[in-house]
Amino acid sequence: MTAIWQMSATALSAAIARRALAPSEVMAAALDRIAAVNPAINAIVGLRDPDALMAEARAADAAAPRGWLHGMPLAVKDLQAVAGVRSTWGSPIFAGFVPQADEMLARRLRAAGAILIGKTNVPEFGLGSHTFNPVHGPTRNPYDTARSAGGSSGGAAAALAARLVPVADGSDMMGSLRNPAAFCNVYGFRPTFGRVPSDPAGDAFLHMLATDGPMARTVEDMARLLETLALPDAANPHQIGWEPFAEGLDADPAGRRIAWAGDWGGAWPMEPGLLAACESALAVFEELGARVEPIAPPMPAAQLWEAWITLRSWAVAARLGPLHADPARRAQLKPETVWEIERGLSLTAMAVHRASVARSAWFAAAAALFARFDAIALPAAQVWPFPVGWRWPDRIGAVAMDTYHRWMECVVPVSLIGLPAAALPAGFGEAGLPTGLQLAGPRGADRAVLRLAQAYHRATDWPARRPPPL
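RE: above sequence
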């Protein structure tokens, strides 16, 4: 019999709905699992009082179901405010902050019936694809606790892999849910930009780089969580209409055309074995009847990178500039955050304009590519999970990294123009560490990408096939 903590969110939802399981049983199993495993990986932080959680679960036992997540224990990424739960953004500036109200994502999870038990760990303000901060410490990889779980959704990915939660929210600016999914052998989905709304605060038009999205151990769970997160909101100017993402997932991929971008014509340094793992994953699609074709770089990597770091620094400075302006708070920011803010503050309007022109050119080039292909495949990481004590990889092979995030350049083509992309587990290297493959579609083609991901999951199911030793 499958243990409760091993069940998918879809299976738990069905069992709770038919009263084969009570929410209190699910909560008790989750709390036992967290107590046994979380100390080794530090994925869940700010855990609420267990007695309060059990009382909430017992109340759900007797209540009418509110949604498909009814009575299910979930932890929210610590870049979201959750009422009554310590919410720190990984920063000592907010180390003691307990919000009085939920942000939109948390409200939607509660509306679907979830019991919010705490937070999943992040790097400071989500900056950097390695989850560590001075408030909660580092999150460790369930496959090797001496290694990084990635980031910024590293706590979410590690919690999923270790079976601490059945499904999780992530967010993604520069691979923040794709990189940890690859590092932890789970799935992550970056929706088309605008698909998942957030509370209308600050600029709603210009900074189109980051989005929330679902993570899971199965594609069906991921699609169902996307349905919950993607409800339209009239205050979001980029909103895309809701779709039943979990319906019709099991579609035949035969005849689908996939472009394989590899290392972007040699522009991206890669650690040994990563491209081979991705190509083995793509061979699965070929076995399923899809056609995979290597392509030359559609646009020079240097142009994409320059546009990306300009727009990213501009966005970070706009968001975190007020903290930097206060000397006392600036002293509590990590050096990478200060560097990013100061770089953004130094930009001219014309520099931002040139970056936007380059982004527009890449969107047009990608549109031409999607006229020939249904999806573009890229590596989800350029390095294997690295030692947890590093701040970030400062080189890949003989190539020195000139920024704290250059080692994640392979995520930029998707992020820069807001494409929907699934991070798929791509197996394991010689050291037993996982990696992943990105599969991106044209803007708005979220369901088509999820269907390709589902076909791959049915053929491989890496999360169940190779669970972590924990």
